[in-house]
Amino acid sequence: MRVPRSLEVWKLGIVNYLDALKLQEKLVSDRKACRIFDTLLSLQHPPTYTVGKRRTDHNLLVPKSNLEKLGADLHYTQRGGDITYHGPRQAILYPIISLRDIGVGVRSYVKKLELTMIELAALYGLEACAGQTGQTGVWVGEKKIGAIGVQISYGVTSHGLAFNIDPDLNYFEHIVPCGIADKEVTSLRRETNLVLPDEELIQDQLISCFAKSFGYSSLIWKKVLLAHKEMGVIGGVILHESALFAEDDGENTYILRPGAEPLLHNLFLSKVRIGISKEVGHSADKVSLIERMSGLYSLDCFILNATFLDDPIREIVLAWSHIDCSILYLVSDKKKEIFPKLSSFSWQIIVLNVKGGSECYTPKLLYIEKLEQFPLIICHLNKKAIGCSVLTVGYVMKPSCVEDFAKRGAFPLFPTQNGLMFVPVSSELPLAPQLQEVDVILHKATDKILSIELDRSSKVSNKITFTRDMQEMQRYLEHHLDFCVIDPLNNIYPLVDRLEIQQILLGLGNVKYEGSHIIRGPHFLKVDNFNELHSVTILAKAGLSLPSIAKPQVACGDADAHQMEIVFSIEDFKSLNVPLPAIIQEYVDHSSTLYKFYVLGEKVFYAVKKSMPNADVLMKLSNSDGTRSLTFDSLKSLPTANDDNQDSGINNCAQTRNQSIDLRLATDAADWLRKVLCLTIFGFDVVIQEGTVDHVIVDVNYLPSFKEVPDNIAIPAFWEAIKNKFDTRVSK
What we know:
Blueprint lengths: L5 E9 L2 H16 L6 E6 L3 E4 L15 H4 L2 E4 L7 E3 L3 E7 L2 H4 L3 H18 L5 E2 L7 E3 L2 E11 L2 E9 L19 E2 L2 H5 L6 H16 L3 E6 L10 E7 H4 E4 L4 E4 L3 H10 L3 E7 L4 H14 L2 E5 L5 H10 L6 E7 L6 H5 L4 E5 L12 E4 L5 H13 L4 E6 L2 H8 L13 E5 L6 H5 L4 E4 L5 E4 L7 H4 E3 L1 H11 L5 E3 L2 H4 L5 H8 L13 E2 L3 E4 L8 H6 L6 E5 L10 E5 L14 E5 L6 E8 L2 E8 L4 H10 L5 E4 L13 E3 L13 H15 L3 E8 L6 E8 L8 H21 L1
Parallel strand pairs: 1-2, 1-12, 3-4, 9-11, 13-16, 13-18, 16-17, 18-19, 19-20, 21-22, 21-23, 23-26, 27-37
Antiparallel strand pairs: 2-6, 3-5, 6-10, 7-8, 8-9, 9-10, 14-15, 24-25, 28-31, 29-30, 29-31, 30-34, 32-33, 32-36, 33-35, 36-37
Helix pairs in contact: 4-6
GO biological process, one term: inositol trisphosphate metabolic process
Cofactor: Mg(2+)
GO molecular function: ATP binding; inositol-1,3,4-trisphosphate 5-kinase activity; inositol-1,3,4-trisphosphate 6-kinase activity; inositol-3,4,5,6-tetrakisphosphate 1-kinase activity; lipoyl(octanoyl) transferase activity; magnesium ion binding
């Protein structure tokens, strides 16, 4: 057998099915005529059902008229096999190879395609096999994970294989996949329950498995931009200067339009390719402003000549030829003269209506009134291109929190490996239209609290005053109870009241296993007046001793919510500045080691941090500066030990410097808290008491940044937690 030396690999990204079909037909013709070498197309499709030569329409279980509601297309093909589904997060290979040149027969070719997918599954510890007689494709037990449908013309192949990484399996419920009834379809994600690597990496691994199965000794990789394709996932954004800058009439200078810099920042952190098209003949201040923005946000600059547009547009096309996705062009309505030329290219044009005139809607022109609408437009177009399997997550939190998540790549505007897009819910826009584009709300309402009034008569939910935008969100959710929220406001209320969370932690007594240590909350006492604490006996009745920590009962939403004091004597209570009512909490000697646990859906991570020293060291610190109690802000000036050692744990399996942590016990506590609090993403802090080795949960918080966990592990787990919450809610 002659072994081919090289294989040309075309990476196409997401391509409409008919475009891919036309490309295959051309390449097959070229391969027959020996104009090209063996070629492998690696791609994905938007949601699409395809029917093979058997034309078994009865295996489509829904009326064809319903497919549009599903966001799916239907196409008839000349490949072998029956009906199947193609969609995002499914790795597809279409080999255009000459079987005669490599000395492989049809039956052997199909077996090698099966082996390709079996080898990929094995990389993830999954045992897969070829189907029984009459069951094509690759199977894991009784569930199908990979499909095969080929066409061979004069020894040259087309069509090929589809391997399920993590597609929306609900689409398979509308068909009898491959005509085989009573058999499930599965995916790599479902079978392994792993946080999978980047989707492109898995596709590359599949290509390598293909090359190994067929004996190709070298691969020639190409990223190909299909010309004149329909609008697909957005891969680049060109911003005309007229949409970003406005002239300040009073100063005769140029300034950024409202919302321009947040938009640039959002696009930059989403790692989308950004360009700016600028005109010639600018004033020095405008040139300086453009240069500053270009440097800050890595903008590609293109000189635009309004009279001769062909050259600059050709420059953009050539510079971005490697982008295998669609391009958006944002321009203001002050530049209507260039609309016709822009519309002649396969770009979607977004027009910022700054003049307030009438809008001329065409399929190529979409109008927006504010720049804050642009991220919503991107998500809308991406969902239209990919289908309903993609979820849009709208996030609501303070800017610093957004920055913490976004700079780690947690809030991309473009679909993640499990089909999530993130868009800010802007207070500059009406709320209802924004939420019509959103499938999930992710919020950190604890940062949106203006005040909390504590009294004995009202529930926590009635005591909280949110910011104006959060109040509007609260009212909207009260009238749309079926909306997926992470997490419902009622579920976070216990975390804003230190008394309530301490009372919840009393239930930790049920969390144990044979031979385990004790895990508990700290002993505590609520006080309305520090004068009540005139005797150590009062503390002792609550299981407390000195030193103790005094904390405000209100955990957030107040300027002094994190103002705390460590108290060493009864007399110190008389002069405390901690807001009332307060919680007196046990101070646990814990060798200056704090374990921060992060719960992201079903997954639990931890990090080891340095912490406050034991009481005897704190006492010396207190006496050294002439004070009695030690005052600190828990967000800023926490007294810590000098040991800089810290570690992190992934999936409860890492080794830590301090071997006394019981990871099984802490993980069981995480599961218990998740069920009791009904929260999706939260954190809690554990210290280990010297002597007793009690594991004491000293704090519980909502939507922490989990910054101690490596991004490549934490962020996919974060996305997975959100997706699973939505899927679970929908299935109920």
